[in-house]
Design a protein that fits this description.
The structure holds 2 protein chains of 2 kinds. Chain A is α/β, with parallel strands linked by helices. Helix content of chain A is 42%, strand content 20%. Chain A has helices at 49-71, 90-107, 116-128, 164-174, 185-193, 214-226, 231-257, 272-284, 294-297, 301-313; strands at 10-15, 20-27, 32-39, 78-86, 111-115, 134-138, 143-149, 152-158, 206-207, 210-211, 261-265, 288-291. Chain A is globular and about 60 Å long. The two termini of chain A are 34 Å apart. In chain B, a hairpin with a 4-residue loop joins strand 1 and strand 2. Classes of the chains: A alpha/beta, B alpha+beta. The interface between A and B is large, with 52 and 39 residues.
Chain lengths: 340, 221
């Protein structure tokens, strides 16, 4: 337990965009005092938004209490409440927003709505010490290559259809694999892929700096159903192909912007193979490679708390009447006055 | 191969460009170097395919009336292409410094050139402003056809235009809208307003398919 007192100010952040409900507490200097995460894991199938939201509502009290306990902070000591305002799944976002509004009103402190994708980048920068990176953010819901330029983070490339993590998850489900807490589908696929040897040709789709994974997924699932190949080889081929695609577009963005740092974040960032690939292109362009530690790369409340601090320090608060959730809030729409 | 004294001018993501002299000419050598990060089989496939494919489409584009560098030699063993060196400035560099009128006329011309490509069934595949070079005679050259394909499909045309928009928004955000509007104007001149409109509708559809777009499915919060 951290015992940081004196005149320090604190922000509590709530993350609830998809299957994670998480509460983080950050000091105004970026010290993370708590980051408690609860993952909703459906018995079968993907994330049902309503079921995930129900999970969030059920665990909220426990997770909040744990965060307070861990940080040693009392609710009355908080200066700001921040929450993931978007993008994400409606019912999940609304659950988090409702809790945030209630807390802010009860404690009579300002509320700050935070963009989830920006929070991933800011947390990555905080934890790795990078200043101005090209960020590859890969998760179950997002595949984005972005970098800062003139007041905003710009999207250089993104997926034209499904996210990279989603592609791996769906494939794993189709293959009848199972995930558990601490061993999500991505890790299961990675483990199998590490035993694969044969590269099976699969569609490789790069359009400019954008990628597309739906054709790749369909082809991989079709091969799976033919039972012609070993599952290990299919996992290996799927990973190699999909990762090569995102690595190619990240390298394009790197060559285009000539930035000197590459940051890898999001749930898929935990994959060792992907880390190696991105590291290789960073080295080739004399850029520093940084990967965000897993706890802060997956969806987490700490990143929302920290980004809330950054926004609040720059006078950005969200009045209750403007705190409705934004399901498809793009990151380049957000002003980030705290960057340079 | 003649005597090539290569001098690296640009280390791109996909290939390295060298300025060299070849039989008394100033040429660009585009070399696709192996990428360590991907499996060698996949790497070879991609490099060989693109090296063989690019010159064909550069030539096709020229036939369609779009200035492109002339190909002198294709070295399939080394995955290298030797082509004409186009002297001029990247559109990416000049857009920021240009006056509004200059921007308009350059973008209009770019739109016409894209229109010509599409009319002849060529999709460029990587339409960024750094792949366009304005020479001293005010001619715009399109380069880098590594991701090109031959198709007249609406979807492919739509993605191509979407990429132009994306490139403008990420790098020339201050005037991306007026630039894109000018591109579309030029594009419509070549393909006709009706065709252009159906392709633009496709662009919107493609954007809606993306992960986070406010108007997707007309969603209400």
């Amino acid at each position: 337990m951290k015992m940081k007192r004196t005149d320090e100010s604190y922000c509590l952040g709530i993350e609830s965009t998809a299957d994670d409900f998480s509460v983080g507490i950050s000091t105004f200097n970026g010290e993370i005092l708590a980051n408690v995460i609860s993952v909703y894991m459906p018995e079968e199938g993907g994330i049902h938004p309503r079921e995930a939201a129900r999970h969030h509502a059920e665990v909220a009290r426990k997770i909040l209490e744990e965060a307070f306990k861990k940080s040693g902070i009392k609710p009355q000591e908080l200066s700001v409440i921040s929450f993931s305002q978007g993008p994400g799944l409606g019912p999940c976002l609304r659950t988090g927003a409702t809790i945030a509004r209630a807390l802010a009103a009860y404690l009579n402190v300002p509320l700050v709505g935070v963009n989830h994708c920006i929070a991933h980048i800011e947390m990555g920068k905080l934890k790795t010490g990078t200043k101005d990176p090209i960020t590859l953010y890969v998760s179950g819901g997002n595949t984005i290559v972005s970098a800062f330029d003139s007041g905003c983070y710009r999207v250089f490339g993104e997926t034209l259809d499904i996210a990279l993590g989603n592609c791996l998850d769906v494939f794993a489900r189709e293959a009848g694999l199972h995930q558990k807490v601490g061993m999500p589908f991505g890790a299961v696929v990675e483990k199998l892929a590490s035993k694969g040897e044969k590269l099976i040709p699969l569609p490789y789709t790069v359009k400019g700096m954008d990628t597309s994974f739906s054709g790749l997924l369909t082809a991989a699932v079709n091969l799976l159903k033919k039972r012609q190949y070993k599952l290990e080889d299919l996992c290996y081929s799927l990973q190699e192909t999909a990762f090569s695609m995102v690595t190619e577009v990240t390298e394009r963005a790197l060559a285009h912007t000539e930035k000197k740092e590459v940051l890898l974040t999001g749930g898929v960032a935990a994959n060792r193979r992907l880390q190696l690939m991105i590291k290789a292109i960073a080295e080739e362009h004399n850029a520093e490679f940084c990967v965000v530690p897993s706890e802060f790369a997956v969806d987490n409340g700490a990143m929302i708390a920290w980004t809330g601090v950054l926004a609040y320090k720059h006078g950005m608060v969200t009045p209750i009447e403007k705190s409705f959730v934004k399901l498809r809030w793009r990151l380049e729409e957000v002003e980030v006055p705290w960057v340079r | 191969m003649g005597k090539v004294k290569p001098f690296l001018i640009k280390k791109g993501a996909e290939a390295s460009l060298y300025l060299a002299e070849w039989h008394g000419r100033k040429v660009v050598v585009k070399k696709r170097l192996p990428k360590k990060y991907r499996p060698s089989k996949l790497d070879e496939q991609i490099r060989t395919y693109r090296t063989n494919h690019e010159p064909q489409l550069l030539h096709e584009a020229k036939k369609a009336g779009v200035p492109t560098p002339t190909i002198f030699l294709i070295d399939t063993k080394d995955d290298a292409i030797i082509m004409e060196f186009v002297e001029g400035r990247q559109v990416k560099q000049l857009l920021g410094k240009a006056t509004k009128n200059e921007r308009q006329s350059v973008c209009l011309k770019i739109g016409e050139l894209i229109g010509r490509l599409h009319k002849h069934g060529i999709i460029h595949g990587d339409l960024t402003m750094s792949n366009m070079i304005l020479n001293a005679e005010e001619k715009i050259f399109f380069v880098d056809f590594g991701l090109s394909e031959k198709t007249k499909e609406l979807e492919a045309r739509g993605v191509d235009l979407h990429l132009v928009k994306r490139a403008l928004q990420s790098t020339h955000f201050r005037f991306s809208k007026e630039c894109f509007d000018a591109v579309i104007m030029g594009y419509s001149k070549v393909l006709g307003v009706k065709n252009a409109k159906s392709i633009l509708d496709k662009v919107k559809e493609i954007e809606r398919r993306g992960r986070y777009v406010a108007e997707r499915k007309g969603e209400q919060e």
